[in-house]
Write a structure and sequence with these properties.
The chain has a single domain (2-132), classed as Four Helix Bundle (Hemerythrin (Met), subunit A), CATH 1.20.120. By secondary structure, it is mainly alpha-helical. It has helices spanning 6-16, 28-45, 52-72, 75-95, 101-110, 112-132.
Length: 133
Amino acid sequence: MKKIIAVPFVVGALALGFVACGGDDDADAFCDKASEVETAGNSLQDLGTQDIDAAKSALDDANAKVQEAADVAPDEISDDVNTVASFIDDLSNQIADANSPEDLLQLAQSLQGDVQELQQASDNVDQYIADNC
């Protein structure tokens, strides 16, 4: 049953990669948005395994925050942020049709290959934030 939370956990873990901690003027807007993404990611990780509507709502919120961060991402990290944002947007669209924990599990299993490719972009965003926020 624990695998059912894989989709919210994956998104939450990726969202936590946007942790912000203050920084120079050029990165401030991105860092502020990254902090909002972290908060949304925490909400995803706090979900139970059976509340599909809450998962959809939390993912929609996280998606909106990630898209906002992508809109203000500095040029040097924008490709990686857009990779993460695109994945979460696609996931949000796909999860809209989920009606059961089993649907979430099936979606999580279908995304395993994408998650592995996404990890590098997420790691790059983490490093940028560590260096600049």
